[in-house]
Amino acid sequence: MSDTTELQHYCLGITDGDHQAPPRSEQGVPFITISAMNDGHLDLARATRFVPVEYFEGLPATRKARSGDVLYSVTGSFGIPALVEQDEPFVFQRHIALLRPDQGHTDSRWLTYILRAPQVFSQAKDIATGTAQLTVSLTGLRNFKVPFVGLAEQRRIVAKLDALFTRLARARAELDRVVELSRKSREAVYSEAFAPFMGHLLGLGSALEDIRYGTAKKCDYGDGVPVLRIPNVAGGRISLEDLKRADFEDDELTKLSLRRGDVLVVRSNGSRELVGRSAVVDDAAAGMLYAGYLIRLRLDRSKLLPNYLHAYLSSPGARRTIEALARSTSGVNNINAEQLKALMIPAPTLEAQGHVVSVIRSADARADRVEAEAARARVLLDRLEAAILTRAFKGELVPQDPNDEPARVLLERIRIARAQELQPKPKRGRKAVAPRIPREKKSAMTKSRQDDDVKDKPYLAGMIGKAGGAMTAEELFRLADLPVTDFYKQLAWEVDHGHVIDDANQELKAA
Q1: How confident is the model at residue 388 (pLDDT cuts 50, 70, 90)?
Q2: 8 Å CB contact between 416 and 409
Q3: Per-residue pLDDT band at 171 (split at 50, 70, 90)
Q4: Given pLDDT bands bounded at 50, 70 and 90, which one contains residue 474?
Q5: How far apart are CA 456 and CA 470, in angstroms?
């Protein structure tokens, strides 16, 4: 597909949401943000709040989305399109643009697909500006270069994309199912591993040599002693990426330095799922300090093995207990040292603890492999989706139909129609002034495509030749003396048969 045009040629208008923050209300019209736009669809269930009905009714029509419109994020997480398929009203602000496709020659679903293509996102990245948040201007959006194809070909592309994307969706759903089965299998192994010992419980406090909160000192990326923070307790392991540092007095180093086998526990976080997450300190982290949102557990290893305690704290039963304790109405979830000390831990012999750790490590390794393979498969599916959209953008996804109207001819017809729409309407009581572009009138048209000197003849090419060899479609239309429909059918026939050359500079030339 070599023909491209500006995005605005597909649309009756491209605008954005209100630039003022709308008022809030307990009920009314849903207010959406970019988070409601995903995979080309709009989910009104993800509306963040409501605005008064009166506010919505006062908006201009150009800011009221309707079914068939296309939304496009232009600020922050820019480059996300979503088709409006609902008739329900909703409100959005200026970080979302509203495209109103010209339904006479634009399939809204096709436009949504094309806006997802890598070639379009690349243009968005190139023109996005701003400091706090990158923004794609409406002028830049209107001037995006997109493929220009007729409505019939658009619909063929949509049918193909719908079929391919349905298969991609099924593949993603299957991967989600595999990951969910892996998660359930992992949880079952944990539960079964600890079940035989639930009659032999030990209060965690009685198995501790020391329990201590971390440092409250501010850390940065300069020099000093490394300090582990919440991001360094990830996936059940100590991560040494993104370390911050600080200088400490000798007494602080003595109290807070980590040893191999210490267990670090997240004690405070906005996400309850992270509270109580643990990791065992290894040789690489020994000697480092830890921040105040972590608690260090130093075990009496004659009673509990560090890796065994870590495994139990990760089990479904322990997670339910910890998350129940960590519930908060303030938005920050906490578990304190006394609550941790009061946890009851199944405490078999050290030999049995070692066996449990071995069983759980094997289960974790299997589940990790499955989930890693699923993640790699998702990446491949994402790449395949991008490749499909790239081919759609280039016009390589479906075969071309020789009966389709040539893109340049269609574009010129749209331009003429738009120009006619823009002609000033005569004032009431005055005689209408003839428009700049002549409208079709039966009395004014003396030729027909069925005339002997027109049908299957280079009629238009001859006119172009007599006029100097080149002219626009608008100029040719004035000379042709053909009805609009006949004119464009004849022009399409002559372009297709090589009598007229449709030049890239939008001029028509006689061959």
Answers
A1: very high
A2: no
A3: very high
A4: confident
A5: 21
Which pLDDT score is estimated for 483? 79
Reported as a pLDDT band with limits 50, 70 and 90, residue 424 is: low
E strand or H helix at 97, and its extent?
strand 96-101
How many C-beta atoms surround the C-beta of residue 78 within 10 A?
23
pTM of the model: 0.71
Please check whether residue 289 is in contact with residue 214, taking contact to mean a CB–CB distance below 8 angstroms: yes
Instruction: Retrieve residue 191's tokens.
Output: 């539960």
Q: What is the mean pLDDT of the chain?
A: 89
β-pairing, 225-228 with 289-290?
Answer: parallel
Query: Do residues 208 and 300 touch, judged by C-beta distance below 8 A?
Result: yes
Taking CB atoms within 8 Å and a gap of at least 24, the contacts of 253-260 are 253/225, 253/289, 255/212, 256/212, 256/214, 256/215, 256/289, 256/290, 256/296, 257/287, 257/288, 257/289, 258/228, 258/285, 258/286, 258/287, 258/288, 258/289, 258/290, 258/296, 259/286, 259/298, 260/286
